[in-house]
Amino acid sequence: YLLDCFNALGDHIGQFFKRKEFEEQLIHLATHDALTNLFNRRRFHEELESRLAYSRRYCAYGALLFIDLDHFKQVNDAYGHQAGDELLVNVTAVLKQRLRKTDILARLGGDEFAALLCQVDGKQAEVIAKQMIEIISQKGKFTQGHLTDVTASIGIALFPAHSNEAQSLLACADQAMYLAKEKGRNCFCFYQSSTQN
User: Fold this and answer.
1) Are strands 62-70 and 112-118 parallel, antiparallel or unpaired?
2) Between helices 122-139 and 81-98, what is the axis angle to 10°?
3) Which residues are catalytic, by number?
4) Which pLDDT tens digit goes with each residue over 61-111?
5) How many CB atoms lie within 10 A of CB 143?
6) pTM, entire model
7) CB neighbours of 108 closer than 8 A, spacing ≥ 6?
8) What is the spatial distance between Cα 39 and Cα 179, in angstroms, rounded to a whole number?
9) Which residues, at least 6 apart from 137, have a Cβ–Cβ distance to it below 8 Å?
């Protein structure tokens, strides 16, 4: 009888741990990008809201970098989605190496990434953006043996200087990224409000 009880208890414990593991896998799938294993857009928004709430309370500062790969669609069109996926994984790896453990990197979708950098000022954000552009340009040269011209355009918005609200800060960084595209791509731009020169 005792042996049957222990067996039944063992089965229940095993099922409990399997269920917990399955729940953790579901949470991971809901919050991470399947290809790069970075935070997805939804989880990034949660992290951004949290960091900005901390910034408002403790007068912390930092930068949001909106990163868009230039000419990425041409890689998919010319060499297929597998080559594009490989390129995204390579870019993710080098971006993660450049960032600190306290920074947050996310794939927002397609060829768009975002990096949330805490306790950096404009000059530090500029240095990081330059380094990102350089390493993406190097990593974007080849994928599956094919030569490409993939580079990056980066928009930078500072908090709290440009905004301390998540949606507004994202819009500022996005607008700055489009300025970088207009400047000829493969560069970065800071957000410029209509009241600035």
Assistant:
1) antiparallel
2) 140
3) 111
4) 999 999 999 999 999 999 999 999 999 999 999 999 889 999 999 999 999
5) 22
6) 0.85
7) 40, 41, 44, 114
8) 26
9) 150, 151, 152, 186
